[in-house]
Amino acid sequence: MTDTNSPIHLHARAEGLWKRQLPDDLPSAWYAVADANVAQSVCPHAATTRRAARWATALYRYEEFWRETGHTPRESTRNMATLPDDERHQGEWARYQRRFEEKLCLYQTIRLDISPAFEWDPHEHAWQTNFAACIQHVQTYGKLPHLNGADKVEFALARWLGRQLRQQQRGAQPAGRAAQLATLLTLQRLAVKTE
């Protein structure tokens, strides 16, 4: 069975997508070579630019952190003393990629798009992940998550949902999210009626 999140597999997918779109893009070629070198544990500076090699190495470290910990590196936290410098630097690297997205070459953009660790909008991704967990909870239990002290996961999900519903009541939810929350409430009402 192939690990679809391995560096070699991710590089191969990104290279294939890039070559179908713009194969003569020289900057993308440099980043593709650097990514291939890192994926194959070859010196990242071989046959490419130093900038591309540093970028590919940083991406590899970012994804490796995700593989080892199950979450992406943070760039800040309430208690900065608990945030290791290496993790903070990796989180800042990701923020830099998001901030300067328009300056990235096509290969970089594609490679970040397919990365299992990288999100262009981490806040939206977290919101959608929590929303999907609420949908799953309603489908499994027939009710919305509630503040169940015995179940830390359900408790956290209920707190998140409560904040979202309060924002919706105040009219502070964007239209798309408000529609999703309305769908969740409808799903919950239907689940109660079928019991």
Largest sheet descriptor: none
Number of strands: 0
| Number of helical elements | 8
- Could you give the distance between the termini? 42 Å
Oligomer: single chain
Q: Measured on Cα atoms, how large is the radius of gyration?
A: 21 Å
- What's the order of the H and E elements? HHHHHHHH
| Mean of residue pLDDT values | 90
**Strand coverage percent:** under 5%
Number of domains: 2
Structural class, by secondary structure, is: mainly alpha
Indicate the overall shape: elongated
Unreliable stretches: none
- The level of helicity is 55-70%
How would you describe the overall organization of this protein?
The protein has 195 residues and is an all-alpha fold. It folds into two domains: 7-114, no CATH class; 122-193, no CATH class. Helix content is 67%, strand content 0%.
Set down the secondary structure blueprint:
Blueprint: H1 7-21, H2 26-39, H3 50-69, H4 85-99, H5 106-114, H6 122-141, H7 152-169, H8 175-193
Helix pairs in contact: 1-2, 1-5, 2-3, 3-4, 6-7, 6-8
